[in-house]
Specification:
This protein has helices at about 5-20, 35-45, 50-65, 70-80, 100-110, 135-145, 150-165, 170-180, 305-340, 350-385, 385-420, 430-440, 445-460, 465-475, 480-500, 510-535, 535-550, and strands at about 80-85, 95, 190-195, 210-215, 220-230, 235-240, 250-260, 270-275, 285-300, 340-345, 345. It is of the alpha+beta class. Strands 4-5-9-7-6 form a five-stranded mixed beta barrel. It has a two-stranded antiparallel sheet with strand order 1-2. It starts with a helix and ends in an 18-residue tail after the last helix. The model has no long low-confidence stretch (mean pLDDT about 95).
């Protein structure tokens, strides 16, 4: 027998096994138990007693996401909602007809896990006391790996509740909050935001919708809103210009619009049509025409955008979390295919070029995951009244929304390629991930708008020195070589200098470049810090790849490897 024969037989056995199961299928796996990095990071970012309590819920969500949620999401995607304008008896009564698969997804998210209420109740998931935002985002991170569309209404309900509690008059809060926080399917309410208009778009100062005061303290709102997701929600936050108010942003106020009036009749607004969207097909988005609809002022007149911005920022963070989750799903699918698929006598994961391609998928996915946890921790501190944390949150939120959402578009597309021809077929999850990923960089502000918001945080909140100090604190606690520490420190200094330049007069053209630089340096440092805390050489390696491939100058014609002195 030659020395080559055993290895040849092994290769032949692998090929035979691959022919038995030629298309690797990960369906049915538990997305939590098969993600050791997530388990390690939760040990770092959550108190031990809370994490121990949450284990059954995390495992349950992981099981559902890898099985039933995935099945329901595929069905709902192929059976989008429809709009019925009249009842069969000819009554002028609108309703959106949702597929039973979508309704089952709602029952899981709103009912079983209460993702919309975790941040606002003290008795969720069997835990007494307020849970940190990390819990909600960790569960959402698992859920969204299979269903993105429903996460938009979940986020808007959560954000509307937050805004109502923060700015609403006590009588409005007492009247409507119980519905928003109910876990009973028959009595709970969902939320929405009706903000976008054709003539205004991202320029809110051009809002044309008009609000007129009434003798009973309510308002009548008239106008068209062009892109309204979850348009049949029980409540929506609406931006409108108060009749007689000055032009520009100072004339814009925020209103709460109920779907049903106190007498049980429908409020005076209509869903004109539903949108035929590229992605998020499971969830309805439509056009709204308000015809003297009853609404209630939230907060102060003329401060509508400032108050809505709090809701938008919360939604932007949620959007970044969802992009992180979708990237994780895409990467996990690609890794599974590469580990199971045999070609030319080798598993794909053993081929050097595939190893490189998988790393190029892992890096942005893990960046977003670290940013998710860092921002969630900062949100908790900010909500507790830490002013420095607020300034930090104001820059971290647009950073994750801008960069993670853009990265998701490429990661989902490149991961689809790993599956090959099957990845292009709608029976698999890959095409839906690609379609849904494109919403993230549009919804709640396009990339330009959000990158400029990073610059505004520097200009108005003094966020840059706060971010620098925070990252220097993490860097001081990193267990890394002196050379790599110096490289991270130098990169942060350069990124900060570029951000300062972008914040000066005439510097707006650098906003995207500056936001990207800050995001990459922030995540490289955060990942290096995490690596030491959880003793993960792999996470440190990914941190180094962030710096090497996404920050430092590169020669496209050179073969590059992690510098040896970084590894010391």
């Amino acid at each position: 027998m030659s020395a080559q024969e055993p290895s040849q037989r092994s290769a032949m056995a692998q090929v035979a096994q691959a022919h038995d199961h030629p298309v690797p299928d990960r369906h049915g796996s538990n997305f939590y138990t098969t993600d050791p990095a997530l388990q390690q990071l939760l040990q770092l970012y959550l108190p031990a007693d809370l994490l121990a309590h949450l284990q059954p819920y995390l495992q349950r969500m992981g099981e559902l996401a890898g099985g039933r949620i995935d099945e329901l999401a595929s069905i709902a995607d192929k059976n989008p909602p429809t709009l019925e304008h009249r009842s069969r008896a000819g009554e002028d009564r609108q309703r959106i007809i949702k597929h039973p698969a979508y309704e089952e997804l709602e029952r899981i998210a709103y009912g079983e896990f209460g993702l919309q209420a975790i941040s606002h109740r003290d008795d969720m998931l069997g835990w007494q006391g307020k849970m940190p935002p990390t819990v909600k985002y960790a569960l959402t991170y698992l859920f969204v790996q299979s269903e993105f569309g429903l996460c938009c209404p979940l986020s808007m309900t959560d954000s509307l509740t937050r805004t109502l509690k923060k700015f609403g008059a006590p009588q409005l809060v007492a009247k409507y909050l119980p519905q928003l926080l109910s876990l009973d399917w028959d009595s709970q309410a969902q939320g929405a935001m009706f903000m976008t208009e054709q003539a205004a778009g991202s320029d809110i100062s051009n809002t044309q919708t008009l609000a007129q005061p009434q003798a009973d303290g309510s308002w009548r709102v008239t106008g068209d809103k062009w892109f309204c997701s979850n348009p049949d929600a029980e409540f929506a936050m609406v931006l409108a210009r108060v009749d007689g108010a000055p032009a520009g942003m100072k004339g814009i106020s925020l209103f709460l619009l109920p779907r049903t009036l106190d007498d049980g009749s429908q409020n005076h607004y209509r869903i004109i049509r539903l949108k035929d969207k590229l992605g998020t097909k499971s969830m309805a988005s439509g056009e709204i025409r308000m015809e003297g609809a009853t609404a209630y002022l939230i907060g102060e007149q003329g401060r509508g955008f400032v108050q809505m911005a709090d809701m938008v920022n919360n939604s932007r963070l949620s959007n970044g979390v969802r992009s992180a989750g979708m990237m994780r799903r895409a990467v996990a699918e690609a890794e599974f295919v590469a580990s199971e698929r045999v070609a030319f006598g080798k598993r794909l994961q053993d081929m050097p070029l595939m190893q490189r391609q998988l790393d190029k998928l892992r890096v942005p996915a893990e960046q977003a995951r670290s940013m998710l946890f860092q921002t969630a921790q900062t949100l908790m501190r900010s909500d507790a009244g830490d002013k420095e944390a607020y300034a930090l949150l104001r820059i971290l939120t647009p950073m994750i929304k801008f960069r993670a959402c853009r990265d998701a578009r490429k990661v989902t597309g490149d991961a689809m390629e790993v599956r090959g021809g099957c990845g292009y077929i709608e029976e698999w999850t890959d095409p839906r991930l690609v379609r849904d990923a494109h919403l993230g960089s549009i919804w709640e502000g396009t990339s330009n708008i959000v990158a400029l918001d990073v610059v505004r945080a520097i200009q108005r909140e003094g966020s840059l020195p706060v971010l620098q100090a925070y990252l220097q604190g993490l860097l001081a606690d990193c267990r890394i070589s002196a050379a790599y520490r110096q490289a991270l420190d130098a990169a942060l200094a350069r990124a900060s200098a570029l951000a300062e330049l972008a914040a000066q007069d005439g510097g707006a053209v650098l906003a995207r470049q500056a936001a990207t630089g800050l995001y990459n340096c922030t995540t490289a440092i955060a990942m290096a810090w995490e690596a030491g805390q959880i003793d993960s050489p792999e996470r440190l390696r990914l941190s180094q790849l962030v710096l090497l491939h996404r920050v430092l100058p590169r020669d496209p014609l050179a073969s590059e490897a992690i510098p040896q002195d970084w590894l010391a």
